[in-house]
Here is the input.
Amino acid sequence: MPTEINFDGIVGPSHNFAGLSPGNLAATQNAGTTSWPRHAALEGIAKMRANLALGLTQGILLPHDRPNRRWLASLSTDYASAPPLLRAQAMSASAMWAANAATVSPGTDTADGRCHFTPANLLTMPHRSHEAHETARQLAIAFADPAHFAHHAPIPAPFGDEGAANHMRLARSHGEPGIELFVYGKSGGAFPARQSRVASAAVARAHGLDPARTLFLAQSPDAIAAGAFHNDVVAVANEQVLFVHEHALADRDAAYAEIRQAAPWVEIVEVPADAVSLADAVSSYLFNAQLVTPPDGVMTLIVPVEAAGHPRVAAWLETMLAGNGPIRRVETVDVRQSMANGGGPACLRLRVVADPKTIDPRFLVDAAKLDSIAAVVSEHWPETIVPDQIVGTSPDLALVQTVSSARAALLRVLALEGVLD
Ligand code: SUG
Here is the structure.
């Protein structure tokens, strides 16, 4: 049976606050502060446990090999002698934000009935531009059966593609044909627009999507200027529900009309700006929630603690639950370390609609497997990283060793040794 499966990126042992993403307000505000990689990874594991407790199927994607020595070699340098900024870019644990791993179209939407993947090129930010190679390898292993899955190459430069963070799917239920919404940014504002329309259109063609069920919508420049560097900071979809901020899309009325025409059954739950401003949405990450339908059928919004603790956002959530809308439950998760780099609950996961039996079981988890992952993290992940250990005049080479051996220990436990290293 095709089900929606969330694949969470495990927070890597090099998680740090280097301030590498202009336009991502949390990341730039926290630049230079001490990070807690072990705690960060355990927060992510706790989020997965909470998903399992709701009855959801849960998958994982692995931390990438950091520092990325191959990338540094392609720039004719190595970690010890690279300039500080390149060192930080090579060391970033940013692959944890699996919503940026790829765009995924389930077989119900594609011409050949297979689930299609296009790894995101992430080329707007140098530290993310070298993720695609390993992402593609992991996806090819996890979803290896060509009868069910098709894999495409990342979109070539210069067309930026940030994957599922700018892609939403609406369907009466996950297993039925749906409409796919690609949200792109227009450049010209203070912050980079990371998703190009050309890239979105190319992904849609590669996936064999039906043009009548594929929409391309411009993100509001105000949202980008307010710090919504990805659409998933201001909107999220699940089944027939689009949960969206009033100022998420450039031409709101026309966009809603187009969506309603393609999917007359859609329920748009809009949060008005006079209840929750764009600034509130960005600081609380209300929309960077996981909107899910667990087996009990109660549609659930999984928000970060920052949203639940925000007075105006909390008030709005309370009003929503008291009303008669389709979202009937709100759960809270603590992923503060990821949030401090601008990555909320939704950033940490990639959604795939597929039959779990067709997926490599090494990428699926139950409570016992999460216990063994947590044990590796507790034993091997560094407790803290001070950015100076990476960008200081003499880089901490012992940290490099710790980061490499921590990942190797995880691969061993997951029986992926020799496959991903
Ligand atoms: O690309 N942060 C990530 C956060 C990604 C969030 N993903 C989604 N919205 N889906 C980014 O800006 C910060 C890393 C640093 O600055 O060291 C970072 O890359």
